[in-house]
Amino acid sequence: MIRTLGAIAMVAAVALGCGQSAKPEKTAPDSAKPASAKKALKVAFVTNNASDFWKIAKAGTEKASAELGTEVVFRIPSTGTAQEQQIIVQDLITVGVSGIAISPKDPANQTAMLNKAAAAVNLVTQDSDAPESNRICYIGTDNYQAGVAAGEFLKKTLPGGGKIMLFVGTLDAQNAVDRKRGIEDAIKGSGIVIVDTRTDETDRVKAKRNTQDALVTHRDLACLVGLWSYNGPSILSGVRDSGKLGQVKIVCFDEEEEALQGVKDGYIAGTIVQQPYEFGYQSVKVLTALAKGDTSVIPSSKQIIIPVKVITKDNVDAFWTELKRLTGKH
Amino acid sequence: MVKFRKVLGLIVLLTSLIVLTCLWERHAHGAIRFLTPQNLRNLLPWIGLFGILSLGEALVIITGGIDLSVGSVVALVGIICAVLLRDFGWPVAAAIPASLGIAIAVGGWHGVLITKGRMQPFVVTLCGLFFYRGIARLITGDTTRGFGAAYPHLTWLGSGFIPNDGSSLVSVPFVILLVLAVGVGAYLHFSAQGRHLFALGASEDAARFSGIPITRLKITAYALCGLLSGIGGLLIAFNVNSLGPTDFGSFYELYAIAGAVLGGCSLRGGSGNVAGVVVGASLIVVLKNLVNILEIPSQLEYVVIGGAILAGVFADEMFSRRQAGIRTTA
């Protein structure tokens, strides 16, 4: 009996300890908080993994937070699994946020979870959409359009056509599917052919090896295309080790430091960037408006599309300077 | 003699795999891409890098233990080194010994917990797997780290060749593996302490009653495993130059264990040899390469690796059983 009680007490103590230690990362807008607000409006922003991309989005949420006085809870699932997102969302609802902006990891299979959340709070998706769910709207890139932009840029880079190969983490993520489809549609009839798509399960070492192996397997590749943020640096590193810098063109997505350096050095023809800063900023703005009962911010299409930009040697310096300012890196 | 037969069997397996690949390639493509200098230049560094991890793992497996924290130690050491160099501005001569010192301390600490704390190796290192990953994420705040272009010598250590031109096949990490393998081999097979390690793995009680200092030996084995994971981790970090704290090195403990087991180490302890481990680790790297070269869909990679390890271990078991049978009947 005493032993049982002891065990219960221990479990309780551990649970309490966890509750205290698991403080979410908060963007407390202490200085910006209006003096009149007794209890600040609280909204949450949930990412799909941990990366620099989300640092930029965080800067956007902070800007909106400072402007509007909304408190933002910024949560990063450490292993980046759908299951972890579910726990985070449940906990956020328990904490009592008024709205959640989430980048669902696996939208098709998360519909039930998202609908449950949408029943409790204002739910918007950002970065990755879940159109099947009851989310109020989507804020982010249209990945199909981003793919088309990449395809158009490929046509400019390879005016005579040529063989290209795609590299991506996994092909079961909707953004990978959409980007690929966009590229395929854009290059139709241009003489550019996709010979293969290799996946690396987000292991950078494997991504690099895929590149090295591709250069052995297909000696006549004209361009390597990386669909996810780390693919650009991995391709660059693989091409460098294979001694083919400048001989094979590279096009990638997103703005990792190494990728931007590659653009600056002229080894990467261009990188297609999304605007995560806007994801963060718009998400907090929309959620704040919704919490105040203002639904006019939601367009009838239920999509707030943030356009992509193509970064080439011409505009890389300006872009990079601004990026460093946003992420606080020097 | 049986020992050498085992290594011989592995080499036969590796060679026949390569020959089959070449035959298939000639049949399907009319050219053997696997044996091109460029592909060998791709393979050798990776064999070196993953081989070093397997060497460390083999040391603890021989004592009848296991180290599940290798991947997280790889991440921790790589990231600490990058942070010391770039954020704290330490010189290379200080940052590398400090990082490796941490790796030794981590390994030694596992040994202390296992011997003095009487905890199971599986549990201790499983906790380590989570713990060091978390520390790596904490240190970096989940931002990707790298060494930039400022350390060409370090990049050379992880991916260079001797001489460092486009045609040499003498890969630096591969040479480092060979040097380390000779060192570990001398320690394991030709020193009294090495023989005691085998004795300890075969029967801990028997070893204890024969007066072998078990505690000291085990701590040494885990510390050496930590050191080798650290060396491997640093070299992999220098090679890929882009370290995502959540994914860098994840699953590498499993590849390390697979290499060691395929190389003839028994998880029951007391058997294994260094030459086998080097060949076993090479086999894993070659298998991954074959998936790409033979253009097997990425999805099948794990099937190929899992199937090959199972087949290898099964063949080894049959082979050694027959050997034992012949011996007893002869």
Structure explained in plain terms:
The complex is a heterodimer of chains A (330) and B (330). Chain A is α/β, with parallel strands linked by helices and 330 residues long. Chain A is 47% helix and 18% strand. Chain A is built from 11 helices and 13 strands. A 7-stranded mixed sheet of chain A has the order 1-3-2-4-5-6-12, sandwiched between helices. In chain A, helix 6 links the parallel strand 7 and strand 8. In chain A, helix 3 runs parallel beside helix 4. The two termini of chain B are 16 Å apart. Chain B is globular. Chain B is built from 13 helices and no strands. With 330 residues, chain B is an all-alpha fold. Classes of the chains: A alpha/beta (330), B mainly alpha (330).
List keywords for this structure.
heterodimer; A: 330 residues; alpha/beta; 11 helices; 47% helix; B: 330 residues; 75% helix; globular
Q: Nearest-angstrom radius of gyration of chain B? A: 20 Å
Which structural class do the helices and strands of chain A define? Answer: alpha/beta
Count of DSSP E strands of chain A? 13
Distance between the termini of chain B: 16 Å
Instruction: Determine the strand fraction of chain A and express it as a percent band.
Output: 15-25%
Q: Low-confidence stretches of chain A at least 5 residues in length (pLDDT < 50)? A: 13-38
Order of helices and strands of chain A: HEEHEHEHEEHEHEHEHEHEHEEH
Task: Name the biggest interface.
Answer: A-B, 39 and 38 residues
Q: What is the general shape of chain A?
A: elongated
SSE string of chain B, helices as H and strands as E: HHHHHHHHHHHHH
Helix segment tally of chain A? 11
Number of strands of chain B: 0
In oligomeric terms, what are we looking at? heterodimer
Mean pLDDT of chain B: 90
Low-confidence stretches of chain B: none
